[in-house]
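I had to read the description of the data format several times before I understood it. Each protein is reduced to its one-letter sequence and a matching series of backbone shape codes. The format is easy to grasp once an entry is in front of the reader. For illustration, here is how one protein appears when written out as sequence plus structure tokens:
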Amino acid sequence: MVQLNWTIIIIAALVPTVTGMIWYNPKVFGTAWMNLTGLTEEQLQKGSMGKKIALSLIFSLMISLAMNPIVIHQMGVFSTLAGEPGIFDATTGSINQSSEAGALLTSFMETYGDRFRTFKHGAFHGTLFTIFLILPIMAINNTFEGKPFKLTLIHAGYWALTLALMGGLICQFR
């Protein structure tokens, strides 16, 4: 059975904060980002920094959880069979080997459970997710908000790096 590795999920949830501190540093893309958005250091300091960080960490945890089925293919098989009657033993909660679906899932995981479970594969899916979902969403928003495409590229680059690292971590460690 594919189980969530909560240690890695929490570590992966810290990745957006770490990459953000580097990516949006004035020596990297921070100055360009501030110029393109019209933000100043004073404006960025307004509001509760604790609240901003807490919300960022909560949202990052949500992203980390969402990355699991994106980078771990075996979760799709598990979710397909999870609703089958009798797949789980009612008393233990473990897979019921005597059910057809339970036996099928166990056999599948024994044969294919470690397939495509590498950092490289997870990073690949994190990057694809950015290119085919994050980039278009941001581009649409920024287009209608009249923001320059360069700003979209700065943000998309950040998310490509961040989701590649998150996907790699989640996929690599079982």
